[in-house]
Amino acid sequence: MRQTGLARFAASIGPIVALVLLWWIATGPLRWIDAARFPDPATFLSSLRQITLDGYAGGDLAKHVGTSTWLVVRGFALAVVFGIGMGLAVSLSAFWRDFLMPIFNFLRPVPPLAWIPLALLWFGLGDASKLFVMAMAASIPLVINTATGVEQIDRTLLAAARVNGARGWIWLRHVILPGAMPHIAIGLRLALQTSWTVIVAAELLGAIWGVGKVLTAGKDDVYPGMILVGMVTVAILGMLSSLLLTWAERWVMPWRKR
């Protein structure tokens, strides 16, 4: 078991080490890439030190990360409530399905970033506009996957639960949600990824602090090192939040294979 764990760790870390090595070779000894267009590792580390210790774009790295993370947490929570709620409604009620699905299917093709100008007009440059866009975009995969999960539940199981007196909240909690949870978990992963994409895009258009603000300032200052710091920060935050979600899934669904 221990060797298997070490092998998995080596398999996961190996490509990252190879990518960093290729980055150093391409921007360093061989000079395949101009440093003015893409920074070398030394420039990246210098930029990281600057934003961590001295600050950049109005705040240090902790301030920017905290701002973006808190927005993602709130926007993701709104998407979960709205997306799962609507998914359950349209899959369990013919009335809500006939009423809501035409509206949903009409709005679904609209790209998430297309909502940003309208959100700025409605809510201004504050957090409300970013939360609105994030909730709109991240709820779409949750609606689809929740409805699909409910539809995939064995009808015999549903009938048996009804015969045994399952009604209301008990029926929803012990029959519907566990049966649909594998599909809901997929929707949660997609929603989380969408949340990070949307928040960075929204911050690019207007924010006081945030990772998107760092990227905007780096672009305006023609500072490739700081742009790469922002990109890597988003990647790490997305990876850590995905790992946290994976842990939560294992806790909620202990019957699934790990």
Description of the molecule:
The structure is a single chain. With about 260 residues, this protein is mostly helical. The chain has a single domain, classed as MetI-like fold (Orthogonal Bundle), CATH 1.10.3720.10. The protein has helices spanning about 1-25, 40-55, 60-90, 95-105, 115-125, 125-150, 155-165, 170-205, 210-220, 225-250. Helix 3 packs across helix 8 (about 170-205), helix 6 packs antiparallel against helix 8 (about 170-205) and helix 8 packs parallel to helix 9 (about 210-220). The protein is globular, with a radius of gyration of 22 Å. The relative contact order is 0.12.
Give a short overview.
It contains 10 helices and no strands. It is mainly alpha-helical.
Beta-strand percentage range: under 5%
Helix share of residues? over 70%
Going by CATH, the homologous superfamily would be MetI-like
Task: Give the number of DSSP strands.
Answer: 0
> Over all CA atoms, what is the radius of gyration?
22 Å
CATH architecture: Orthogonal Bundle
CATH C-level? Mainly Alpha
Secondary-structure content class: mainly alpha
Number of domains: 1
How would the global form be characterised?
Answer: globular
Enumerate how many helices there are, as a single number. Answer: 10
Q: Write down the secondary-structure element order.
A: HHHHHHHHHH
Please summarize the sheet with the most strands. Answer: none
Which residues sit in consecutive blocks of at least 5 with pLDDT less than 50?
none
Q: What is the CA-CA span between the terminal residues?
A: 13 Å
CATH fold call: MetI-like fold
Mean pLDDT: 85
